[in-house]
Amino acid sequence: MINKKLILGLGLATILTSCSTTKSIHNLAVPSGFESAVIIPAKKGMMSEEAIRKWPQADISTDSIPGMSIDKAYQFLANKKGTTIIVGVIDSGIDINHDDLKDNIWTNSDEVAGNGIDDDKNGFVDDIHGWNFLGGKEGDSTPEQLEITRLYKKLNAKYVGKSEDQISENDKSEYAYYQEVKKDFDEKVDEANGNYQYYQKLQEMLRKGDLVAQKKLDKTNYTIEDLNTLSPEDQNPFLMKIMSTGSNVPDTFKQLEGGLDHYGSQVKVMYNLDFDGRSVTGDNAYDIKDTSYGNAHTIGSIDDEMHGTHVSGIILATRDNKIGMNGIAKNVKLLSVRAVPDGDEYDKDVALAIRYAVDNGAKIINMSFGKSYSPNAEWVYDAIKYAESKDVLLVHAAGNDGSDIDTAENFPNDSKDKLI
Asked: Could you tell me if 255 and 245 are in contact, meaning their C-beta atoms sit under 8 angstroms apart?
């Protein structure tokens, strides 16, 4: 799953903090014992918007900005000849027509675009720039359940209403696992429902406060000073807080809508036992040999699936074209593989996506997604080993929740027991 940034509850940035167009940069601590080995120039001050946008290019020793030293790397490589490689990005949809990406897109020269024929006989019809394992119509988004939901539904059908003394010896281990999954699922559903209802209450509170303020003040646009002239019973605490921090009603409604969309998707789709997002592919998601599915529509929904485009831009947005940002790498071609829905990816899709990228020449594969459950992890593990056999580097996200992935489950990974 791809984690989306969300401002939660009364922590709305425009409510509790003032907005600023600059960020502070402070002295960085040097680890104890390394004081003589590390020289970091002291710097305090404000970073401009341009510096913030370009921070990955910066170098800590020359710019006093803890970037990735990209500009410095290119200075070192200035007189060296590069070799073009293919980078496979397994993600949500990628806008391969984006002005900052379109010049760096991999093209399958053995395929004839749009003729409906698998010209190169690789099993994928018209895969000119990659493959879409999520299926669906061109431009469609792909909402999906979380893996825990799919897993709970399967196990619950077998064990619901049964006590431990009714379980055979052969099923006791699975039954114990079901209890763990059920506990986790119930807690997550309760949390999602609670957050969704909380946002609904905030939205309704703001709506009522705004209507009262407009009526009492006889104006649609008002200030905190205007609200202070109202009687205490007409002063909505939430509205007062919003206006006192310099924010406004329309922007706050928009942020609340974002929260409702986020948690609404969890309630209505991700934790919904009856939702079936897989119906568009026409395959059996639990049969690794059923590979005739998907299509060549790798872009997906540009509005709803920005993550793949974002990731690809960091990797290889055209450098020095005065459009957007400078990507980290040049001399690279993007092979787009769409396999990550708005929910949890299927193990089958991930496994086949890795193999597809490897078979089409990718030397590096970026996988900025992950999940805590993986019922068919062996398929992905085998695909990772296949990539290794072809000397392909896989880069996988560690996750956004700060978990210790030496112990916490985080898939996909290349270790069956976390020991190798």
From this structure: no
Q: Where are the alpha helices (DSSP H) in 139-248?
A: 147-159, 172-217, 224-228, 237-244
CA-nearest of 337, 333, 342, 257 to 301 is 342
pLDDT tens-digit map of 192-237: 999 999 999 999 999 999 999 999 999 999 999 999 999 999 999 9
Q: Each residue of 283-292: pLDDT tens digit?
A: 999 999 999 9
For residue 93, CA distances in Å to 124, 231, 300, 340 come to 18, 52, 4, 8
pLDDT digit string, tens, across residues 179-202: 999 999 999 999 999 999 999 999
Instruction: Name the pTM for this structure.
Output: 0.87
Distance (Å, whole) CA 353 – CA 45: 45
Look at residue 60 and give its three-state secondary structure. Answer: helix
What's the Cα-to-Cα distance from 130 to each of 51, 80, 100, 124, rounded to whole Å?
34, 30, 18, 9
Return the structure tokens found at 84.
């073009």
Residue whose entry in the numeric block shows the structure tokens 């905030």 = 202
CB 132 within 8 A of CB 296: yes
114 Ramachandran zone, left/alpha/beta (phi>0; psi -120 to 50): left
